[in-house]
Amino acid sequence: MSADMIPLLSKALGETVYMVAVSMVIASVIGVPLGVLLHTTGKGQILAAPAFNRVLGSIVNAIRSIPFIILMVAIIPLTRAIVGSAIGTTAAMVPLVIASIPFIGRQVETSLKEVPYGLIEAAQSMGATPFQIIWKVLLPESLASITAQLTTVIISLVGESAMAGAIGGGGLGDLAIRYGYQRFRPEVMIATVVILIVLVQLVQFIGNTLARKLDKK
């Protein structure tokens, strides 16, 4: 691989990390409360509202069922309205965030379901409010599991950010398509794949380490 590709690979890696990090933060701010809502409004839960839960769950499932490549194209007008452009790393974050929010919501809901209901009943018997139960029982007890689940979301975002390169989203996917595929340079394709593999392995290692440290069992 020629020396001129090193700066391009570095720049593309930086764009990918930027897209994934910012998208993950924004999606988590909305997705984690969504997951709490999905769990606590379920039948027999502390904020039971079955009808609302079914509607919310249906919306979440509908968004999750849309393939990411289709979602990116379908919301181009929305992306352009939010960031002023449908091309580039910042524009790519709009579909990344929208795709990640319901994913995070379901992952957090799954983690919260692992908390023994006896702990909730004990908190209720001591007069704890639903908010106190969420903040002091559900989230702390499921923190290790939520960390592991969010690690899975980050890895999914890495793959989706590469896919965003198909419509000029920047990052490693864009580099692989423009310089590797369109210019018939297989070494560029191989380099981007290797970098993505290393990035995913690093994210998984950090996530697993944090989850083990947070696990109270």
From TrEMBL:
It comes from the Bacteria. Keywords: Cell membrane, Membrane, Transmembrane, Transmembrane helix, Transport. GO terms for biological process: D-methionine transmembrane transport. GO terms for cellular component: plasma membrane. It holds the Pfam family BPD_transp_1. It comes from Selenomonas caprae. PROSITE patterns: ABC_TM1. Residues 13-207 form the ABC transmembrane type-1 domain. It is a multi-pass membrane protein. This is ABC transporter permease.
